[in-house]
From TrEMBL:
Pfam families: Abhydrolase_1. Keywords: Hydrolase. InterPro entries: AB_hydrolase_1, AB_hydrolase_fold. Gene3D superfamilies: alpha/beta hydrolase (3.40.50.1820). Signal peptide: none annotated. One of its GO terms (molecular function) is hydrolase activity. Residues 48-135 form the AB hydrolase-1 domain. This is Alpha/beta hydrolase.
């Protein structure tokens, strides 16, 4: 069977304050479902990785406020709020426990879910969770993130995303002097230079501050029945999310699992940087088969 032969069912789920849209590849009764989640990455970002797992059911979704999952009201979407959505989604599937692969903000949300509902997740693979309170330069990171969000409200998407991309590209801890670095030109990163007036970007308006400011509940995670794996990309060394992942692994007393590529190494095009979904899936499969 190829991925094109698999039945894909799209459905919606009403949760407090939002309607989630999710996709099921295969029959959820045919094996342990693999739930792939991001934040604010939508289901489309996992298409290439999902195609590598035709032997088991795969579930993807658009987080609240992203693409096909509209919110009723604006505001911050915290990891605990997203965890509540995932809890209800797994309940809707009617099978369990599931395996969960979470990327970036999805990894943070997966950690929040396991802390509260460990019986729902057999294995959690948290790939580069940006749990920034754990790294030594958190005060500077927080100031930079706050400035990025303020820039978004003041000047729009392009200038804010340019600052965000520049922060992500740093491979050393951020010094206080970083706060005085001149703002980058959005066009350098292919970002718009004109402000279109919109302020509904999911990353910048609802997730960035709460996600990067989240500290996992390690007391609950230590007690969880879930097998927890913390991952990072071989090409992410020194970057904020990879450094945070290493700290999470250290606090949990587990070895950091290395995956091919960078922060989005599982995507077909890496969102600008070529990924390796086949190689990534091979490592993921080994982790899941342990």
């Amino acid at each position: 069977m190829t991925t094109l032969d698999r039945p894909v069912i799209t459905a919606t789920l009403d949760v407090p304050g939002a309607t989630l849209t999710y996709d099921v590849r295969g029959d959820v009764q045919s094996g342990t479902p693999l739930l792939m989640v991001g934040s604010p990455m939508d289901a489309g970002g996992f298409a290439a990785l999902a195609a590598q797992f035709v032997d088991r059911p795969v579930v993807t979704y658009d987080p609240r406020g992203v693409m096909r999952s509209p919110r009723d009201t604006p505001g911050v979407s915290t990891p605990d709020l997203h965890a509540g959505d995932l809890h209800r989604l797994i309940d809707r599937l009617g099978v369990g426990p599931v395996d969960l692969f979470g990327s970036s903000g999805g990894a943070v949300n997966g950690l929040a879910l396991v802390a509260k509902h460990p019986a729902q997740v057999r294995t959690l693979i948290a790939h580069e969770p940006p749990a920034c309170p754990l790294v030594p330069d958190f005060a500077v990171i927080k100031a930079v993130v706050d400035d990025i969000c303020a820039t978004y409200q003041r000047s729009g998407l392009g200038p804010a995303m340019a600052k965000f991309i520049m922060m992500l590209s740093q491979t050393e801890p951020l010094e206080p002097s970083y706060l005085a670095v001149p703002a980058p030109d959005p066009s350098m990163f292919g970002m718009p230079t004109e402000d279109d007036g919109s302020r509904d970007d999911a990353l910048l308006s609802q997730n960035l501050q709460s996600c990067t400011g989240y500290e996992p509940d390690f007391a609950a995670l230590w007690k969880a029945s879930t097998h927890i794996v913390i991952g990072a990309g071989t090409e992410s060394t020194g970057e904020v999310s990879a450094r945070a992942a290493a700290e999470v692994a250290k606090r949990l007393g587990v070895e950091l699992t290395m995956f091919p590529g960078g922060h989005a190494g599982f995507t077909a095009d890496g969102y600008g940087v070529p990924g390796d979904p086949e190689g990534f899936a091979a490592v993921l499969r080994k982790v899941l088969d342990r």
